[in-house]
Design a protein that fits this description.
amino-acid biosynthesis, 8-stranded mixed β-sheet, AB_hydrolase_1, 12 strands
Length: 381
């Protein structure tokens, strides 16, 4: 079946899978004897392999960051920023995005077969961290023949991975772009994650994480978790502008069915999420968020944690982001400046909330494009 794609899209894309047969030691003390990473790539790797960009995904993202899968009408999650002429210009850069370990879109995760039992890992899948993801991504870079990324880029949880790359592999990353990020979660953020996890863990169909063996899905818990999360991704202004107090039937019915449009929207978001995501992956991703704290091993001194980085940084925040507010991004900027690192920072006026990093906000795209133009010129792309 033929498809027509927008001119500024990378068009039809096909995921690839990379198998690793050497054990990967994890921060939790366990190891994966072998694992797979599923990834997509866009653009062309230049002769000296200097124009490679790694895009790290956020909590519910995947390797499908741009373009279209065969027969699909919805593009990848960062179509606004990846493609010909866009901030991450695929006419200049070779872009790689992999599904994180523990994911549910092809990389080894809870639904994969445990080679020791021949059954799905389920709850036996080890807890993974941002550092574990970065280590696995370094293996992928090796497999692709990429010694140094021109930039590692991510929003939210993806931004945490970009920071960790700069800390753990200072000679393998030229630039880190951290968008809507934070150096660690606040107690309030951890609390939101815990409520979401409890929704899943207490679902009668969870079966202590072995629901795949039972042939069921903890649908109610996963949907509730997504609804909780989704509220925090949007700003009050964005929800008011989109829904206000609009009623579906134009009147109050004095019952507990869906009456307000915002209720209908949240239920739709929750149910559609169940169809494309895994409950244990959600548990793992939120734990990785909670655990991320690069300053923890440096007496809570973030500047010391970042003292060894060599990458230039672009840090972007959004005025209406209350989940990771601009003050959290400025903590990163201050820590970098305290040790005389190269950093550019902008706080973008946007009403979309935390999800603004996924939106085509003109000021955001302009600043992002200008920085990436600099990255491109440095590598001759």
């Amino acid at each position: 079946m033929s498809q027509d794609f927008p001119a500024d899209s990378v068009g039809l894309v096909t995921p690839r899978q990379q198998h690793f047969d050497q054990p990967l030691e994890l921060d939790c003390g366990q190891s994966l004897p072998e694992f797979d990473l599923v990834y997509e790539s866009y653009g062309t790797l230049n002769e000296d392999r200097s124009n490679a960009i790694l895009v790290a995904h956020a909590l519910s993202g995947s390797h499908h960051a741009a373009g279209y899968h065969a027969g699909a009408h919805k593009p990848g999650w960062w179509e606004a920023c990846i493609g010909p002429g866009k901030p991450i210009d695929t006419n200049r850069f070779f872009v790689v995005c992999s599904n994180n370990l523990g994911g549910c879109h092809g990389s080894t995760g809870p639904l994969s077969t445990n080679p020791l039992t021949g059954r799905p890992y389920g709850a036996a899948f080890p807890i993974v961290t941002v550092r574990d993801w970065v280590r696995s991504q370094a293996r992928l870079a090796d497999a692709l023949g990429i010694q140094r990324w021109a930039a590692v880029i991510g929003g939210s949880l993806g931004g945490m991975q970009a920071m960790q790359w700069a800390i753990d592999y200072p000679d393998r990353i030229a630039h880190a772009v951290v968008i809507a990020g934070a150096p660690k979660l606040s107690a309030q953020n951890i609390a939101f994650n815990e409520v979401a996890r409890q929704a899943i863990l207490t679902d009668p169909e969870f079966h202590e994480g072995h629901y795949a063996d039972e042939g069921v899905i903890p649908r109610r818990g996963l949907a509730l978790a997504r609804m909780i999360g989704h509220i925090t991704y949007l700003s009050d202004d964005a929800m008011r502008a989109k829904f206000g107090r609009e009623l579906r039937e134009g009147k109050i019915n004095f019952n507990y069915e869906v009456e307000f449009q915002v209720e209908s929207y949240l239920r739709h978001q929750g149910q559609s999420f169940v169809d494309r995501f895994d409950a244990t992956t959600y548990l793992l991703m939120t734990k990785a968020l909670d655990y991320f704290d690069p300053a923890a091993n440096f007496d809570d001194d973030l500047s010391r944690a970042l003292a060894g980085v060599k990458a230039g940084f672009l840090v972007l925040s959004f005025t209406s982001d209350w989940r990771f507010p601009p003050s959290r991004s400025r903590e990163i900027v201050k820590a970098l400046l305290d040790t005389d690192k190269s950093v550019s920072y902008a706080d973008i006026v946007a009403h979309h909330g935390h999800d603004a990093f996924l939106m085509p906000v003109p000021e955001y795209l302009g600043i992002f494009s200008a920085y990436m133009d600099r990255v491109g010129r440095e590598v001759g792309a």
